Amino acid sequence: MYVDFPLGRPLGKPLDPEFQTSVITAAFALLNAPSGPVLVDFPISIEDSSSEMLACAIPPRFDPDLHEAVDEALGLRAAYNRTVEKHGRTSVGRSGTTDDIAGMIEVFIKLAAGTPLDEIEVPGGDHIAVAMDLRSYYEEAALSLSDHVPAARQAESWLYRATKLGELLHQAQANLKDSGAERRDWYYVMPSTHHRGD
Amino acid sequence: MSDATVRTRANDIPVYEFDSLAWTTPKPLAESRVAIVTTAGLRTDTVTLWSQSDEGFTVLPHGTNDLSFAHFSPNFDRSGFNLDINTVLPTDRLDEMAAAGTIGSVAKQHISFMGAQKDHNLATMRLDTGPAAAQLLREDEVDTILLTPV
After folding, report:
1. Is A26:A1 a contact under the CB 8 Å cutoff?
2. pLDDT digit string, tens, across residues A46-57
3. Which residue of B38, B68, B94 is in closest CB contact with A91?
4. Cα-only R_g, chain A
């Protein structure tokens, strides 16, 4: 069964058991086909909302001695902790723990300033894993700062278009690309839906 | 750019084509043991990131909630999974269907592969890790698989 749902949401709607069950029921109904192959479309389509940012508070500046992206990330820590406590899981951890969020961001501060990648000490050794950890941290925090179920890609749009970290990642990605870095090293810094100019 | 653009880019990727298509008449659903196989790149830890050429799989014990997204590709929504694991791995829905008698039972474990692969022929998955995962499910007497692609 082909489901025209946002990428990353194969059951269509989070926190909607009735809808999810209807999707599974429709798929299982295909088991009754007398012969195959069988391919049908699920009758309901859902589009992503990458053009609409999640309405989500950004912490005010707290410590002017810190880089603004580090200050912002530390301000999101309480919200991140609430999400992890509520849902019992996190996808942060590929490059380090949330206690080293400043060290993770430091990688991209240096890249955005033009420091070559091979001159940077990267937590865990892979800056793409660091970028994924930072995305998970911000998106998981955002869920506790929003009062509704976000449409697909709204949380990532908030990160890459509205936050100081997002701006830093864009600059770092541009520098990596301009420096002739391997495609893997700049392309996967963020979703291609948010790339600028490629 | 949106999912539609990502899908369009993927449309032209050549894929392996089987010479023949298998067809099996299944057991009645109410007697079937059901497992989920996803390509969401889920892990039972938060440490290991899936590499782009890793066609291996992770076993997900049924009922495990603290799974993490370790998918290599950043090009899909993750907030749905963060909010509700059933958006990707609908184990609660299968439990409800088993309790209602719609399906026979739920497998003791599920399987995750990772859907963004360099080798679009998926040779390792077809010839090695896929059959290995299938063997694990057969040993659990699984009859039917629900595939959730990511």
Report:
1. yes
2. 988 878 899 888
3. B68
4. 20
Q: Above 70 in pLDDT, residue A157?
A: yes
Closest to A77 in 3D by CA, of A123, A135, A136, A141: A141
Domain that holds residue A75: 68-194
Query: pTM here?
Result: 0.94
Query: Would you place residue A198 in the very low, low, confident or very high pLDDT band (cuts 50, 70, 90)?
Result: low
Identity at A130, one-letter amino acid code: V
User: Distance (Å, rounded) from C-alpha B124 to C-alpha B55?
Assistant: 6
Q: Are A27 and A80 members of one domain? A: no
Indicate the pLDDT class of residue B1, thresholds 50, 70 and 90: low
- For B101-114, what is the mean pLDDT? 98
Residues A26 and A112 grouped into a single domain: no
Q: List B residues 50-89 in contact with A (Cβ-Cβ < 8 A).
A: 52, 65-70, 72-88
- A29 and A94 in a single domain? The answer is no
| Residue B11 pLDDT | 84
Are A27 and B146 within 8 A, CB to CB? yes
Which residue of B2, B102, B150 is in closest CB contact with A193? B2
Same structural domain for residues A116 and A156? yes
Domains contained in chain A, number:
2
Is A169's Cβ below 8 Å from some Cβ in B?
A: no
A163 and A72 assigned to the same domain: yes
Residue A165 lies in a domain: yes
